[in-house]
Amino acid sequence: MDIIRFSEIVKSERVAYKYLKEQCWQKSIVYCIRCGKQRVYKLSSGRYRCYICGLTFSDFTGRWIGKLKINARQWLWIIKLFELGLSSRKISRETGISYPTALKAMNLIRKSIVAHTQDCGLLLEGEIEADESYFGGRRKGKRGRGAGNKVPVFGILERNGFVRVEVLKDVTAESLLNLTIKIVRRGSIVYTDKFKSYDSLMFCGYRHLKVDHTKRFSSGKVYINGLEGFWSYAKERLIKHHGVSKKNFLFYLKEMEFRYNNRNADLLPILVTYMCDLVSNVL
Ligand SMILES: [Zn+2]
């Protein structure tokens, strides 16, 4: 969304509210968010009540944007500044919203991203790069595989396509294979490095080719440079949010996956759709 259109939407609370309301109710059809029936009536307060189950609710009840007491214009500004990659401290400064509220709002955006991208059923296929990387922790101590306080992350990238990342409990063959099977269509070519946990891939219906990192130049198509590009992209962006807790790490990581997969898309309308959706109980 270009800045002219955005400024029109946020010029007043009324217009901003109308814009978000349209995203909440497809074709302006209001239904009960508990029983799903369309038999609802409007109360003088502007809220709705269901004839069938008696639930009273408003436009934003049960949705991500209904989880904080901030108005429609503020939400749109937060989503816009999130799209631009600002930190929660900067968003707080720019919008006048308190830092704890800005932080909560940004974490809700991240959670809505996870809710919409987790288990979406999309299988990657064709030429696939798989690799793990280690995030967080201080520079002291062991690095790479087996590093104590770092979080292992598994990444799978479809060349010229999407990337999927998951936090790992460990880097055993079992963990890596289970995730690969969940994410990658059988019959695909999977490129990895020489880490032995990948050795069983060929027994699981994949064509497995190993990259030799000791050779200075990767030969032909056998490389994992695409994924290495994603790791540096994600790490560079995560540095800005120094001190991400382990509890929230997955959400930041999924934000990076989302940004990468939508690198050519207009993020604001996508994020608004996610935020206006009903919150499922999965998270
Ligand atoms: Zn109902």
TrEMBL record:
<dbReference type="Pfam" id="PF12762">
    <property type="entry name" value="DDE_Tnp_IS1595"/>
</dbReference>
<dbReference type="InterPro" id="IPR024445">
    <property type="entry name" value="Tnp_ISXO2-like"/>
</dbReference>
<dbReference type="InterPro" id="IPR024442">
    <property type="entry name" value="Transposase_Zn_ribbon"/>
</dbReference>
<feature type="domain" description="ISXO2-like transposase">
    <location>
        <begin position="123"/>
        <end position="261"/>
    </location>
</feature>
<dbReference type="Pfam" id="PF12760">
    <property type="entry name" value="Zn_ribbon_IS1595"/>
</dbReference>
<protein>
    <recommendedName>
        <fullName>ISXO2-like transposase domain-containing protein</fullName>
    </recommendedName>
</protein>
<dbReference type="InterPro" id="IPR053164">
    <property type="entry name" value="IS1016-like_transposase"/>
</dbReference>
